[in-house]
Design goal:
Elements: H1 3-21, E1 25-28, H2 34-47, E2 55-59, H3 61-71, H4 79-90, E3 97-100, H5 103-108, E4 116-120, H6 130-137, E5 144-147, H7 156-161, E6 166-169, E7 172-175, E8 179-182, H8 192-199, E9 209-210, H9 216-230, E10 235-236
Parallel strand pairs: 1-4, 1-5, 2-3, 2-4, 5-8, 9-10
Antiparallel strand pairs: 6-7
């Protein structure tokens, strides 16, 4: 989806929870890259007046470390991002962000019943502190879970995206009453068109091309797109347990 459509979805899902339903917003996010991107997007929406003031908690020691490293090298960021960082430093109360490192402080977040945006890892909900926040908020109709990244088959995040009515977390059966929002436009992965464009710059086709990333159906579709669009002949999707002789 376009950035504009993605922002509309994000604004609606957050506003409907914090302003009308009085619950929490839980956002699973990978610590490196995705968390920083989400913070950037939220700050930009607040600066432009599309979102009101929010209390944001980033509950991940690794996310804190990655963000600190990013801020030590602002010269590598684009002009728009640097301007946004300057605005945030000048308006620290517009979108307060609290990084949570201690376990005790992380547990204390469970006492917050409304008004919080909690960003935590892991991004696919299969490990880390995000599982505790899901355990404490999934069963509450006034809360929302916003999925911002790809969820692989078999993960807890994928089950939520696919509409599971209940999930098991730490051996407990948890009813899914919270709203589940999937914001696909924030995906960090280049799409099929981007990959085909990159491959199209090869002067000569490789002797053999292997598609080894993605789920089976998606990988087969991409391999077929390479054959048809680029007219490359030797394109295959390796199967588990198979072997290929490379000469």
């Amino acid at each position: 989806k376009s950035l504009e459509a993605t922002e509309d979805e994000l604004v609606e899902s957050i506003e409907s929870t914090l302003r009308r339903k009085h619950g929490n917003v839980i956002m699973p996010a990978f610590s490196v890259g995705r968390t920083q991107e989400v913070l950037f997007v939220l700050a930009d929406l607040v600066r432009r007046g599309r979102l009101k003031r929010m209390e944001i908690y980033v509950d991940s020691p690794m996310s804190m470390a990655a963000t600190e490293i990013t801020l030590r090298h602002v010269e590598l960021l684009d002009e728009h991002t640097r301007e946004l960082l300057e605005w945030q430093r000048a308006h620290p109360d517009a979108m307060p962000v609290r990084f949570v490192q201690d376990v005790e402080e992380s547990i204390a977040l469970n006492n917050i019943r409304s008004g919080a945006v909690i960003i935590s890892a892991s991004g696919m909900c299969d490990a880390g502190r995000i599982k505790y926040h899901l355990l404490n908020n999934l069963g509450r109709r006034e809360c929302s879970v916003i999925i911002t990244g790809f969820q692989a088959a078999g993960t807890l995040g994928r089950r939520l995206v696919e509409g599971a009515r209940s999930v098991t977390i730490f051996g407990q059966s948890v009813p899914v009453r919270a709203d589940i929002h999937t914001i696909g436009g924030l995906s960090a992965h280049v799409d099929q068109e981007g990959l085909l464009d990159w491959l199209g710059h090869f002067r000569h086709p490789p002797r053999h091309t292997f598609v080894v990333h993605g789920e089976a159906e998606t990988a087969e579709a991409f391999a077929d797109a390479i054959r048809k669009r680029l007219r490359w002949n030797n394109v295959s999707v390796p199967q588990y347990g198979g072997s290929i002789e490379v000469k």
